[in-house]
Amino acid sequence: MELVRDVLDKQLIDREGTKMGRADGVVLEIRPDGPPRVDSLTLGFTVLASRLHPRFGDWFARVRARWSVRKSGRYRVPWSVVEEVRQHDIQLAVRALDTPAFDWERWLRRHVIEHLPGASK
Amino acid sequence: MKKAMTLALGILTSVGGFFDVGNIATTAQAGASFRFQLIWSLLLATLLVIFLVEMSGRFAAVSGKALPDAIREHFGFTFWLVPFAVLTLIHLLTLGAEIGGMCFALHLVTGIPVWVWAPVVAILTWLFLWRSTFSTIENSTSLLGLLTLAFVVAALLHHPPTGEVVAGMLPSLPHHDPEKYWFIAVSILGAVIAPYLFYFYSSGAVEDDWDPSYIAVNRGVALIGMGFGSVISLGAIVVAAMVLAPRGIEVSDYHQAALMLTDAFPFWGFALFAAAMGIACLGAALEVALSMAYTTAQTFGWNWGEDLNPREDARFCLVYTGAILLSALLIMFGVDPLKLTLLTMAINAAALPFVVIPFLLLMNDGKLLREHKNGWLSNAVILFIVILSFVLAVVSIPLAIRGGS
Amino acid sequence: MKARKVSLERLVGRLVRDPDGRRAGRILEVEAEIEGDDCLVREYRLGAAALLQRLGISAGRLVGLPFRHEPLRVPWDQLDLGDPERPRLRCTVEELRARQPR
Lengths: 121, 405, 102
Fold this sequence. Notes:
The complex is a heterotrimer of chains A (121), B (405) and C (102).
Chain A lengths: L2 H5 L3 E3 L5 E4 L2 E6 L6 E7 L1 H8 L1 H14 L7 E4 L3 E4 L4 E3 L10 H9 L10
Helix pairs in contact in A: 2-3
Chain B lengths: L1 H17 L2 H14 L4 H25 L3 H9 L1 H34 L3 H18 L2 H12 L4 H8 L4 H6 L10 H15 L2 H13 L7 H29 L10 H4 L11 H32 L13 H19 L4 H26 L3 H4 L6 H28 L2
Helix pairs in contact in B: 1-7, 1-11, 1-12, 1-14, 2-10, 2-12, 2-16, 3-10, 3-11, 3-12, 3-18, 4-5, 4-14, 5-6, 5-14, 5-15, 5-16, 6-14, 6-15, 7-14, 8-12, 10-16, 10-18, 11-14, 14-15, 16-18
Chain C lengths: L3 E4 H4 L3 E3 L5 E13 L2 E10 L2 H13 L9 E4 L3 E2 L7 E2 L3 H6 L4
Antiparallel strand pairs in C: 2-3, 3-4, 4-5, 6-7
């Protein structure tokens, strides 16, 4: 398995089959005794901003801290939660709704969609 | 039966993507200023777009993925960012142009100013997206889109000189106003080979659950769907050549284009033009707004799908809502719809390299596409498109400044 | 050296030098293997430039060229990531080349 080709930027699927974001980042743990291990996957605009340039990441983190509904700009998915790395997505063992990945979805649902008529097709 | 219905996707993409406000503007100008001479530009654009749409559909059928999804996954976020930014700009400008087109159509039949209609049109478009499923949108716009056949009927009623029409199918040099000639030629290419068109098509194919068994049908849909749009556009050029050119009417305003159908249909010419324009622009607006939502949601990995209830893909809905809002504001603040359309066509042409190159690379990936990856012909065509797109990118903006005013 | 965390996306593209200061290449890929509950890194792959390499595969095949440079494979224990900004090989480039699998 190749981390850049098969894990980074891959679509993440929760245990109910809902898309819950992409692996915007991968954290490795460098250990003194033994090979490095994959610690976690990270999600969030802050992570993406850092990929362009570390300064963007810092700037974005500050903007986000003022305006966001999410508690932290970087959501961490521990490797233990990863069930399967498939060709087209990565299966996780959590439910998206229970995670910060869905902070904005939940917020929009409660504060906007519930108040608009005709939201079922 | 389901495969027959996929024709609806082809016709939707055609009515919305091919024959939209940009096409109406450019074909009317082409016919009015140069009669049948620019037909070759339309034919060239049609040929190229058929290949692009076929590739896009084949890709979605085999990989099960839409283009933005696949490009981010395959090439990474940093690489995808520039095409994504370019696509977003194009989406917003085009949406503004289409909304402007709808507003103009309504103004034509009521006399009420264009900018007043903007909020109405915005809400109507939004409601359509909010309440419908993807197949409802496909089928209804395709059905209503048949109204655009009015241009073909009118063209036939005018009995155009066949010799001249055929001669126009071959490239020729202009006898007057060369800058305007090439500007319109480039605009036709930009209007037809709209970047969002084949990106939308791939997402639409995923919405329709295409699998590798759809590959043959896809070829037919690409041909018939784009062919349909091309025939309508050809009709528009002919009508403009027969009605506007003899009277020396150059299309610098949509009001002049609106005269096109009044010769063939004396009573309802205006209303018919308005209806055809309104429907083409509605189809396009829905398609562009959806395309922007698909592209954004797929880029960031959000849930997406027009068949889902809004509460299941809130961020997806937020994107098309925001896009419609921003674009409608352009029209509300008095931006001239025709000028916006022509600017957008020029930018379309300039942006082609950014959005076609990732596509080209993807279509050659053996792992994703296995035996269905591009053969030499498709590669030759797409390479031609890449080269052409660089040429267009370089000339379109200067031409827009010099030939468009 | 205690355990430290490094983000993969910052690591990719970094220039790796050997103890003599010679350039070995940029980190293009990290190959890992699942062992039980963990995913462990097995080797790193170095090459010319990350994006160009990724694109090169597609573009090269497009015009029928074979893959030009084979990436250099570095077993996990030969790369010192004490300073993630400046990864260093623990052996020289020649030694590494000699050890490459056929």
